[in-house]
Amino acid sequence: MRVCVVGSGGREHALAHVLGRDADVLVTPGNPGIPGSVATPPEEVDADLFVVGPEAPLVDGLADRLRAAGRLVFGPGADGARLEGSKAWMKDVLVDAGVPTAQHGAFTDETAALAFLDTMADLFVVKTDGLAAGKGVLVTEDRSEAVDAVRSYLSGDAFGDAGRTVVIEEGLSGPELSLLAICDGTTAVPLAPAQDFKRIGVGDIGPNTGGMGAYSPVPVATDAIVGSLMDEAVGSTIAALRRQDIDYRGVLYCGLMFTPTGPKVLEYNVRFGDPEAQVVLPRMVDSLTDLLVAAAGGSLGEAPAFDEGAAVTVVCATEGYPASPRTGDPIHGLDEANALDDVTVFCAGVAASGGKLTTAGGRVLAVTGQGPTVAEARERAYTGADAISWPGMQRRTDIAAAPTVAAAD
Ligand code: AMP
Ligand code: GLY
265 in ligand 1 pocket by Cβ < 6 Å? Predict the structure, then answer.
């Protein structure tokens, strides 16, 4: 079995690593830290299965184009990928499906948007409707900051066309959960739940990032809770999509918050989480290749099994991330970290220079440790991360330090 993974980040490295247990894997375009990376565009690659990693090519219809060429593809078409491409539409689908979510409104007009903002209590949430590379969400207690965001989003100054529609939400609070469901168009099975750490700073402070670390399993997400979320959120959503003739074959990433009034869906993504993939996938006992082939072919079976242990990943990022990452520094200690037992380093923002890997993005590496418990996995992840250095490297020291509540805002 030959599998082509599309993308170039740490998520794609984790996909390639785990698919590589029983398949020949190539990654396009990949990066110099991912074995099997090729420059050939996906349309020109010959493979038995295509797995599209990031949201942008999915929203842009890559899965449709590959399917039209007769390929077996894991990843939704542009119709389903709109769940991530338009938060306003995603909210409409949630309402249609009867899935609990934050009170919200979508606006193109400033006066109406600001009037709605005034109905919010003390936590203001302003989001771009369109894709903004994870940066289009503002959560603040400062009303004037929220007003400035509404204005700069709507004018196009902050995020171009992605912000010309804004979604304003009621601020919720509680622990968060990332539940990744594998869908075959009709049914879905859950992967092991994970929790990620979105803020840049220790203690969950500072700006939101793509994610500074993650761990799995999550004690608060019992099998019973996952089962009811699969029925009430994921299953209802797939049924709502079907009512619109959308055949969703791919990952449905359900971002949830356990609020005092029950779990609510904050967002759907149409791809594996990053860095959630770096902790969830390595824990798989059953074949990821078989699972994704079954989903892509519309014939999912049982939910896959995961090992009883835990995984923790710590993201190593560049100085200045997320605002203005400094790049071009040589990375030290990668081989030493990878040589440690139960430690795997997944490469994201890296480039090659003079036979050595250098920093080339904000989030550069995710160092995953595995062990019998979250505490032991955490110990290994940090031992691995401690072996790695470059000038100005930043990472959080509190990933998975308090597993049940750490991601609460
Ligand atoms: P999203 O991309 O929509 O998941 O938002 C990114 C992050 O912003 C989430 O993981 C939460 O930490 C936070 N967030 C989003 N929506 C809300 C909300 N309604 N209330 C509180 N925090 C939120
Ligand atoms: N870790 C959050 C995301 O992948 O969107």
Answer: no
Identify the band that residue 403 occupies on the pLDDT scale cut at 50, 70 and 90.
Answer: low
Residue 409: the pLDDT is 35
| Closest ligand 1 atom to Cα of 196 | 10
Q: How confident is the model at residue 407 (pLDDT cuts 50, 70, 90)?
A: very low
CA distance 7 to 13: 9
Q: What is the average pLDDT across 18-47?
A: 98
CATH code that applies to domain 107-164: 3.30.1490.20
pLDDT in tens, 286-302: 999 999 999 999 999 99
Q: Does ligand 1 lie within 6 Å of residue 88's CB atom?
A: no
User: Which atom in ligand 2 lies closest to the alpha carbon of residue 269?
Assistant: 5
Which ligand is closest to the CA of 196, given by its number?
2
Q: List, in sequence order, every residue forming a beta bridge with 199; answer none if it has no partner.
A: 208
- pLDDT digits over 77-107, tens only? 999 999 999 999 999 999 999 999 999 999 9
**What pTM did the predictor assign?**
0.95
Q: How far is the CA of 198 from the centre of ligand 2 (A)?
A: 8
In SS3 terms, 80-142 reads as: HHHHHHCHHHHHHHHHHHCCCECCEEEECCHHHHHHHHCCCCCCEEEEECCCCCCCCEEEECC
| Ligand 1 atom, smallest distance to 102 CA | 19
In the chain, domain spans: 2-77, 107-164, 176-296, 310-386
For domain 176-296, the question of CATH label 1.10.8.60 is answered with no
Q: Assign a CATH topology to domain 2-77.
A: Rossmann fold (3.40.50)
Token digits for 218? 């999550």
**Taking the domain 310-386, which CATH number applies?**
3.90.600.10
Residue 179 CA to its chain's centroid (Å): 10
